[in-house]
Amino acid sequence: MTEEKNPASSHFIANIIREDLQTGRYDRVHTRFPPEPNGYLHIGHAKAISIDFGLAREFGGLCNLRFDDTNPIREETEYVESMKQDIRWLGYDWDDRLYFASDYFDKLYRWAVDLIRKGKAYVCDLNADEIREYRGTLTESGRESPYRNRSVDENLELFARMRAGEFPDGSRTLRAKIDMSAANINMRDPIMYRILHATHHRTGDAWCIYPTYDWAHGQSDSIEGITHSLCDLAYEIHRPLYDWFLERLQVHRPRQIEFARLNMTHTVLSKRKLIRLVRESHVRGWDDPRMPTLCGLRRRGYTPEAIRTFCDRIGVAKRESVVDAGLLEHCLREDLNLRAPRVMAVLNPVKVVIENYPQDKEELIDADNNPEDASMGTRKILFSREIYIEKNDFRETPPRKYFRLSPGREVRLKHAYYITCTGVIKDPETGEIVELRCTYDPESKGGSTPDGRKVQGTLHWVSAPHAIKATVRLFDHLFTRENPFDLPEGADFTDDLNPESLVELENCPVEPGLASAEPGSRYQFMRHGYFCVDTVDSRPGRLVFNRITSLRDTWAKIEKKSLRLE
RNA sequence: UGAGGCGUGGCCAAAUUGGUAAGGCUCCUGACUCUGGAUCAGGCAACUGUAGGUUCGAGUCCUACCGCCUCAGCCA
Questions:
Q1: What are the catalytic residues of A?
Q2: Residues A91, A94, A95, A97: what is their CA dihedral angle, to the nearest 10 degrees?
Q3: At A468, phi and psi to the nearest 5?
Q4: Closest nt to A316 (CA→C1')?
Q5: Could you give the ipTM of this predicted complex?
Q6: Other CB atoms closer than 10 Å to residue A455's CB: what's the count?
Q7: pTM greater than the 0.90 cutoff
């Protein structure tokens, strides 16, 4: 599944853009993805990336990558690199348009001086607590700072001295002079610059005052000639402030449009919560395959194509919603079904001895690699007298509608022969089934017989003497609840962590051909699901597979239902 | 009791700026099948937050109400 023909997007942002193009408000489309380099990108960012880059692509425009690095204390080059990698992996490209808000520090500084000259900004000596006090509350208006009416000259001088490093951190700020009684708190003389004697990941020690996000963001978009600034609903209330700055500065004005961020069932997507999962070792790091981070999903084996399809299908709207994680899994199956080579692996093995098959005979059997795609060819698999099958594929007393093996019943071994169960060997102590005895029908080679008789079940298997052993990690939702925030009073979201989100199986017999499987390559383990060779822990002789997602399991559903009925 | 947003089937989400509710996921049937996979065909399910109003006709316009979200960092 690759380039599916995208019909023109019909969500509200696309409609606005179409209209802007028609009315001539803009004659082109230029967007940008503006992350702060202070963490790892996750599936929620993938939605934003897909909107920003996708819309530009759809309308024949451009999309910049700009890092909003206005806070030297939190930002690191390491994050810049990981974000670039993740965006490229997703399949998007910013060409030569890689920018940083810090590229604009000089310009921003000059603009600030302009505003001071126009009497629209002033240096305030209030400390953080005092500023909060003066700001007022949601229902009461604020009070003007006693420093609000300094002369332009004094402001100019003080601002220059702030920049020169004459004052300690937090002692002064530069504020926009707007309206302390504004109903929108963001308009109550917001801070434009704060003093921070900190080393910036790119500008080093060139600055000791740094612009706030609110002061930097709109102007950065303006400088880059952005036409449509797409962002999170959270910035809706800031829009009047961005427009205020741009208007005073008399510069190019992008149109900001806000959309709802992504939420997904059974996981969390807030930076704060993800950090806790890592710090408190609930997962094995940022790239733990259970994490919703892009590096986690990548390691798990998710494909960029599936993630893009997912982003297309969830739509874009202003209403906050929670998308069913099942949709992402669906997109994965849809993609992998067409591309993943099929292979046989037994996760919970029980040995089967085929009594009428010669002791030292072995056979090479042809098997197609993907029934969906003949061009993926065939391979040879080994068959012998002793094989492994799934414990689950045998029942001593089969329930109704059970198609698999049971005493006296005949089933097909995929690609190989029909076998009939003739005996069960149990551990005399525990009663556990340790081995099954079967006979095979030599006529059934290849999976069918001359008499054309039907069997109900087809099992996967691996030849015991030829099998190689692998570690297989089965992942499940990180959180048990659909919404990990819907918790009883006083509970913490970590209380809902799924204890079975990772089940590790050792020594699973798999086809010997898998010995050469490349890290990162994906397979379908027949009748199980899609698996990916782990890029971190897997090595020759010690294969580790991650389950990307399971196959749809109709039998599990039937079984569960009948259990409920009993 | 400030301001700004949002409310369409179980979950997402459309509806040519009033014309009589797309599509996807889920779920359920059936067909087919050497993966109880895939595929195909079909089906269940919404009086569009509530109550009024305008209109021949309203998810789309008006009024009132209800619910939910965001904002009081020198974070972004």
A1: 36, 261, 271
A2: -170
A3: -110, 160
A4: B13
A5: 0.96
A6: 19
A7: yes
